[in-house]
Write a structure and sequence with these properties.
elongated; 447 residues; five-stranded mixed beta sheet; alpha+beta; single chain
Amino acid sequence: MIFKQHLFFMLYSACGLVIKEAATKNKVKGSQGQVPITQNVTVVEGGTANMTCRVDFNDNTSLQWSNPAQQTLFFGDKKALRDNRIELVHASWKELTISIHEVTLSDEGQYTCSLFTMPVKTSKAYLTVLGVPEKPEITGFTKPALEGDHVTLTCTTSGSKPAADIRWFRNEMEIPGTTEVNATGRSFTVRSTLELQVDRSEDGVAYTCSVDHVALLTAPQQVTEVLEVQYAPRVEILNSLIFPQEGQYFKLECDSRGNPLPAPVLWTKDGGELPDVDRMIVEGRELIIMSLNKTDNGTYRCEASNSLGTDIAEYKLFVYAKDLPGATTDPNALAQHGPDHALIGGVVAVVVFITLCFIIVLGRYLARHKGTYLTNEAKGAEDAPDADTAIINAEGNHAHAEEKKEYFQEAARNVVHLKSENLGFANNYALREEYVKCINVLNVNHM
């Protein structure tokens, strides 16, 4: 009997240990699974934020959401804060999801999900609210600018979080600006400026301010303004023919540009009115001469004016004879702005080339003849007793050398027998020179 009681006690103790161990394991497993899990959320201002808290294991313990001010929003499925923007999405023992509609920047912060175990377990989720930048505005276009003015353009956008980026474009090309960022509460105000020294080339140019931000999911916000610059006229005359010919149709166009637009242009000839209004017709900015003749030669002037000034341009017309080759009578001939520079350059190149060739040929010719002269002189000087004989020998006419000597000897005898009354004539330069030559020849013969 005692043995049976002892055996029963041992079995009861063993079962107790097994049950206690199993209970301990289940308790540890439940404690490890009862941990709330949350995620950070980012939302654009004005959007909806969904806050979700989950647990893998829950032994019927309630979940709770609290805002950054530690105010309870929902305890289980029970709403605790009176805010119509906050709604329950889903509530169970394993999940509690709420939504916040029309989110504002003040909703940003750290939210807490609590699991009421012993002890209480919590998880944090940070709600980030992106501030959408307002549509930018460009200032500095209060009035038309005058050529030479200094203009400052400013682009401003507010309400961005984080601070927005501003870029400038001149037509389609990006240009740098100077940016300034200021905090205004929870958001930022961004300004960017452009400094311009305007001229007539800026008239009609489009300046665009573009705002880039992470909250702008589709495209950046932009605003464009067109710059207006006023300037005095600038005039140019375009002609329809290069070589105007008698009898041809001829047209001059006065191309005048200015802002404000210049008034109707004024055409004059040689400082006075147009002489033949029947043949010379003014149509807007064009002067048309129906049939050219020599009387149309002269200086034509076009004058254009606006409120900022006046400009003039002149064209000198010369009418060529009717049989001039290459002239055209087409009234729709294209305007020519000046001579053909390519043709002129080609002519100049050809002239320079021909001149260089001539110089080279002439140089070679002179060098060759100079060498022949020196060679002949050297040959004559080999056997000559003096310079005069060398020159005579250098002529190459050795067959006539004796005749030349007899001529000089006869001339010398004539000079020797000059009478006294004829000596004065010897003062003549040519006679003196001949006398000297004769004396030299005689000396050579005597030697």
